[in-house]
Amino acid sequence: MYEWARLHGGAGTENLGTWCMSEDKREAMKLLGCDEKYDNDRASDFEMLAEWERLLPFCAGMGSVALYQKQLSLLGLSERENGQNICDFWRAGNEKLNADLLPYFTNKYKEFIENQGIDVFELITNIVKKDVAKHLSFLDVVGDICQNVSSASEHGAVLRFDAFGLSYLRPDRYHAELFWKKLVCDEKLNEEEMFVLRFQTLIEVLLFLKEKKIPSTLRFLANHSLLREQTISYLQNHHLMLGEIRFGVSLSESVSTLLPLCRLSNTELRILPELLLRPSEFGMSLVPSLRRWMAEFPISALRYGGLLTDSFSMALAAREVVYETLASILLDLKICDEKRQEILNTVFNL
Fold first, then answer.
1. What is the mean pLDDT of the chain?
2. Between the chain's N and C termini, which has fewer beta carbons within 10 Å?
3. Which of 275, 228, 230, 229 lies closest to 249, judged by CA?
4. DSSP labels for 218-257?
C-alpha cells in the first residue's frame, strides 16, 4: 500500500476527535464563519468534533462529508442520528478506539509509514542536524545514504521525491556541493537551489541502485506540469534509473496533457500517472471524474497514490472509498469478477 499522506501527530487514535478531524474540516469551519478557536487550536478535541457534527448539513455533497462517513464506518460507527446526544456518540467512538481496534490501527499506521517509500532528502536533513555534517562533503553523505537505501531494497526500492513549491534548474554535482555547504551552515536556499540539491541527491541514489541492478519505483510530486515534465524528461533522457516513475496527478487534470509523459516509457523505464487526491475530489464529484478518466486512459495503467491530508484515518477512508467506487463502475461495465479483481489489484498495488 502506497500513500502520500502528509501526516502530523501520528495515527490520531487518542479519541474520536483526533481520529476524525482533519485540515479540510477545519477549513470548512472557517468558511462557515465558526469561532476562531476552531482554527487556532484553542478548542478541545471534543469541541472540534461537536462543532463539525453541527455543521454537517451545511456541507452536504462535499467530499469531506463522504470521507467522514467512511472514517466512522472504519470504527463500526454510523452517522449520529437526530436526537442522539453528542456525548454518547463521543463515548461510543472512544470505546471502539480503545477496544480491539487499537492494535489493528497501530499496526496499520506503522505499515502505512513504512510503505510510503524513502525520501532520500529526509535522510540528508537528519544528517544536517549532527555536528559531523560540517566535515562531510555532499558525495560522502550521499554515499552513506546509498548504502542505507540498498540494505533496505533487496526486492526493489520505493523512493519519494517531493518537488512541491520548487523551481527547476539543471542539476550537477558541483552546484549540489555548494548548496550542501550552504545548508550545513544554516543558510537559506532559494527554490532553484533546493531543487538542485534534492534532485542531485535523488540522481546519485538512482545511479547507485541502477549499477547494483536494483529496480526502483519513484513516486514524484510536483505542483505544476512544467516542472514535472522537465524532471521526468531529464531522468529518462540521461538513463538514470531502471524501473518505474509514478508522477502525481489529480482527477481534475486533463488526460491529454499527461499522455506525452507516459509515451516516454521504454523497456528500461515505465512512466505512469498516480492519483494523489484531495478531499474536494470525493463526494458528488468522484464518480463522474473517475468515469471521465476511464473514458480517456486505460484504467490498468493508472495507480492509486493516496490522499493529500494530515489525517491517517482519512487516508484509509479515501482508499476504501476509491476502491469501492472503482469496483462499482467496473461492475456496471460488466467486467467479469476475475478481471475486475485483477484491475483493482493493479491500480491499488495489492
1. 90
2. C
3. 275
4. EEEE-SSHHHHHHHHHHHHHTT--SEEEEEEE-TTS-HHH
